[in-house]
Amino acid sequence: MRELLGTWVAALLTLMVFSYLISDNPLYRLAEHLFIGSALGYAIVVAIQDVLLPRLFTPLARDPVAYWHLLIPLLLGLLLLAKGRISTAWLGNISVGLLFGVGAALAIGGALVGSLLYQVRDTMLPLLPGKGDGGSAIDNLILVVGTLGSLAYFYFTAGGERETTGLRYGALRLGSVVGKWFIMITLGALFANAVIARISLLVGRLQFLLGDWLGIL
Amino acid sequence: MKRVLPAAIAMAAGFLVLVDFFFDNFYLNALGVTLINWVVIIAAFALILGFLNVLSFHLRKIIQRQEGWLYSIALLMVAGTVLFGGLTSVQGYRAPLVRTVFDYVQTPLQASIFSLLAFYIASAGYRALRVRNFESFLLVVACLVVLVGQAPLARYVWEQLPALKDWVLGVPSTAGARGILIGVALGSLATGVRVLVGFDRPYSE
Amino acid sequence: MLYCPHCGTSNREGSRFCNNCGEPLPPSSGQKCSRCGHLNPPGVFSCVRCKASLLAPSIDEGLRPEEPSEEPEWLQGLEEAPWEPEEVLEGVEEEPEWLRELGAPADEVRVVAEEEVPGEEETAPWLEALEGLVEEIPLEPREKEGLLVEITGALRVEPIFAIPHRLGEVASPPLAGADQAARFEGVVGQPLAPVATEERARAPMTKVISWLFYLILAAAVVVGILLAGENINLPLTQATADFYETIESLQEGSVALLSHDYDPGTAAEITPQVSAILDHLMRRGAKIVNLSLTPEGQALADRALESVVSDHDGYIQDYINLGYVAGNEVGARFIAEGLGPRLSPYPLGAAVRGLEDVDLIIVLAGSQELLRRWVEQVQAPYKVAMVAGVSAQVDPAARPYYRSGQLEGLLSGLVGAAEYERLNQHPGVALSRMLPQAAAHLVIALFILLGNFAYLVERLGGRG
Asked: Is the per-residue pLDDT at C309 higher than 80?
């Protein structure tokens, strides 16, 4: 019974959303607000149940002496809520400062170790003699040229290059032209994949309507 | 005080975590883990702050009878239902009421709203992806190869199409994506360093 | 709607003082930039001239100008004027100019840009790319776009885990949330209807043509669904095969950690992947630790686990769902450092004392940011084997990591899930959806060809 009713509700909500294709209308607006409300409420429940209770309140309640240090994040968390009012907002900045500091540190470390190091190394290795693995030498060459080209393109168009003549300028200019080609190919692939992703969602919805709801399948 | 304290905390915590990221020291590691534990908790509070912001916005809208205030009532009712169901039950988000709303309201709504884009992309494909010059030619061709090549049945279009699709995604597209990724990583690095040395103080007024 | 330049609160049109903080409001309906004084049109979230955020300056003043590359193009879409070149800062960290260079954005083009849900870095570039190529994009009413934008904003109220639209937020978690919440308020608060009516009135014909496209697409999918079967010619891609092999090579009793970093918006692609992966892991007798960096992820994980486990009577139920972890990259780091203590109360804790006991991490990512977080914060520093199942739209952006070997395998969207079901020899929902999927791909490819044909005819006609 619950499932049958639920399926009908879900189907009607789906149709309310799709009604937007014809034109904007109050039903769509309503559906949208219902979604936002549900998502908000859900996120709060999850945050309380999976983070605040097990990591903060339960330990504090069970053994406040052993977990005294949790009073600090509790205080900082409450200070953060002070941001809600303009007069007390500066108090929240202390907590925000901590979040920023830790976030920035991890972003630096991650970008350096996780992305730059591997990506640069993987671009340079194929050029070294005897290091070509996976894929042909031509593919490796294309990868290197494409990566350097797109970087040249960023650098060049970002105004990193001040000179307008000379060998350096010429090389960058050429690199940026070639780099743009590669970026366009990437953008084409991104568009195609965005299409693919959205179609999968659409197929899922229509299969739900035809199968679970109408029972045609 | 109002300016210095947040900055001092940001820099001190940041440097500590950064050093912990690169060096293996027992005490440093313990400190770093503690800080990270705190940040996860504060992050959950930040979520609540965001919720309170939205709540006050909609309450004000309802009280002032602003346009669309009826929708705000609907929004708050659903949010209230989920919160009530989740916070009054020991099962939390696994409580039947919350599960029901999640499965039969939130999930179909979010999936449907996201799937609407399929229609707009289809019509954008007709109107937007046009070959005007060599660059747009590359974009359109790459798009078609991936779109058709990734489709099951692509072999019926052309036997080699799936292989060509894999090559486009794996070599030239990866080269461009790698250029973008390196650029993004350099950007993260620069922004992070500016925050850590206090050049940027996004947390401070 | 009138935004207070001091605290960002929205006030009724015509108000002279802010409801919230009492500060005087700017005379016109625009918003004055607190940084450069430029008067911006209403509905803009960052200054058209200097790019400073117009939202709650008390919270994020001073953050914007040095933003690194991945700018919120979808937000730019909302802005009314193009960038001014002299404001461009030096170096990598700025807005990628190539995006801008692709052409002066036409008003209509923005409409398309706004259609896209924000949040995924990769959507932005291609949309921007479209801008240059577009001639006339029809009138999909703006509001909807705004609304969609809105919705992601709302979803991501949790500041820290919010999918950042800008790279700066990688370093600025809490801000993202406050920022998004305010943006959310702003957009929902906008009286958007007038714009749409105007557009609709302008060209009823184009609207009808759009409906025709929608109808054809829907028909193709419906017919595909009705005719669908599991026997479909599906070429296997190397990335999927690598993924499968990685799991196939796990010994019995190995530990796999699954991070369910997606939500119902991409579940249609990723849930079938999860089912196929869990199916395989349980056949291999692996111990499975589940968790998620998105609040909805743990719920979707629960449901997938329930349904797959019921198919595996022989599997000793060696799995656990640890639920949601807040905090973005901090959350990923937190898991890496604190997995042991987290698991110690459970039976699995005896086998898994920390990340060093995990044999494989499987990231299921609905967005590029979430994937990058795992690779940067966990895979590289801790040298753990990692594979990823991603929404198709993340695929091109994930390729560099696959190529460099940081990801040992990559599943792309629903197609990847179907390939996996084929490898498992256990057909499921993904395979049953391949025919409608293929039909829709072909229909859209035809739309693109048709568009180019029309364009060609038009140009030839123009010359003659």
From this structure: yes
DSSP for residue C46? B
Of C63, C238, C265, the CB nearest to B111: C265
Closest Cα to residue C90, out of A162, A93, B137?
A: A162
Q: Are residues C216 and C164 in the same domain?
A: no
The CA distance from B142 to A194, in Å, is: 13
Is C147 touching A (CB cutoff 8 A)? yes
Q: Which domain holds residue C268?
A: 238-430
**Sequence-distant (≥ 6) Cβ neighbours of residue C200 within 8 angstroms:** A23, C139, C141, C207
Structure tokens that stand for A103 in this block:
């976030």
Q: Which residues of C touch A77 (CB under 8 A)?
A: none
Average pLDDT of chain C?
68
pLDDT, one tens digit per residue, over C150-177 is 222 222 222 222 222 222 222 222 223 3
| Residues B178, B181, B185, B190, CA torsion sign | positive
CA B88, B89, B95 angle in degrees (round to 5)?
A: 125
Tell me the nearest-neighbour CA distance from B106 into chain C, angstroms.
8
DSSP state of A54: I
**Tell me: the pLDDT tens digits for C182-191?**
333 333 333 3
Note whether residue C273 is domain-resident: yes
Nearest by CB: A118 against C129, C380, C415? C380
| Cα–Cα distance for residue pair C56/C34, rounded to 1 Å | 10
**A143 CA: distance to closest CA in chain C (Å):** 10
Q: What is the ipTM of this complex?
A: 0.93
Q: Which residues of B18-44 are buried (b: 16+ CB within 10 A; e: fewer)?
A: bebbeeeeeebeebbbebbbbbbbbbb
Q: Are residues C313 and C390 in the same domain?
A: yes
Is there a contact between C183 and C148 (Cβ–Cβ < 8 Å)? no
Which CA distances in Å does C227 have to B138, B156, C350, C431? 35, 18, 50, 13
Residue C439 in contact with partner chain A when CB distance is under 8 A: no
3-state secondary structure of C53: strand
Structure-model confidence comparison of residues C183 and C322, the more confident one:
C322
Interface touch C265/B152, C-beta < 8 Å: no
Residue C5 lies in a domain: no
List the 182-201 stretch of B: residues with Cβ below 8 A of C.
Answer: 183-184, 186-188, 190-192, 194-195, 200-201
- Judged by CB atoms within 8 Å, which residues 104-163 of B form the interface with A? 104-119, 121-122, 125, 129, 134-136, 138-147, 150
Q: Does C118 touch chain A (CB under 8 A)?
A: no
Residue C381: partners with Cβ closer than 8 Å, 6 or more residues away: A109, A110, A113, A114, B21, C336
Task: DSSP letter for C250, please.
Answer: P
Q: Which residues of B98-113 are buried (b: 16+ CB within 10 A; e: fewer)?
A: bbbbbbbbbbbbbbbb
**pTM score, two decimals?**
0.79
| B66, C61, C209 from C331: Cα distances, Å | 39, 26, 47
Give the angle subtended at the CA of B145 by the CAs of B141 and B151, to the nearest 5°.
150
Asked if C197 and C273 sit in the same domain, the reply is no
Residues C97, C161, single domain; the answer is yes
Of C200, C377, C403, the CB nearest to A114: C377
